[in-house]
Design a protein that fits this description.
about 150 residues, 7 strands, about 15% helix, about 25% strand
């Protein structure tokens, strides 16, 4: 930036949050290296530095809840590619968290409200889930299109 604050390299990034049942995390192909570079403020999550090289920040929350939350930040195409690469698009129980207003293109019957018991750390307005497999999606291609629509592409 022109004020010497170092913001010239900052860019706006999109985010998607996914859930999978805690018991089925092993079905995902996550990078081997997990780290938490900011343990003071982000005490309940880990990051995967390997994916930063691809322009995507992947954060996995370590909450003791029935669902594991994965948060992906980056450019829309990169987020969707990484989600596919780690197995979220093919996971039979993966869902994307959204708000009702963000999911305006989704058929209401393809959305479900997640209880506070399942995800107590997520604000109620974002405890709306859209299943990636089934529900009108035709495989990974259908899931990709739906995610890109949610990301505004």
């Amino acid at each position: 930036d022109g004020q010497g604050l170092g913001a010239e390299e900052c860019s706006s990034r999109k985010v998607l949050r996914f859930t999978v049942p805690f018991s089925s995390n092993i079905q995902l192909t996550l990078p081997l290296e997990e780290t938490n570079p900011c343990t003071t403020y982000l005490t309940s999550s880990v990051f995967y530095p390997e994916l930063e090289e691809r322009g995507v920040t992947l954060r996995k929350y370590l909450w003791s809840t029935p669902l594991t939350v994965f948060e992906l930040w980056g450019a829309p195409q990169d987020i969707v590619q990484v989600a596919d690469d780690i197995g979220l698009l093919a996971h039979p129980d993966a869902e994307v968290l959204t708000s009702r207003s963000m999911a305006k293109h989704e058929a209401p019957e393809h959305l479900r409200d997640i209880s506070e018991k399942e995800l107590p750390h997520i604000p109620p307005r974002f405890r709306v889930a859209a299943r990636l497999c089934g529900s009108g999606a035709t495989g990974a291609d259908g899931a990709r299109r739906r995610l890109l629509t949610l990301l505004g592409v």
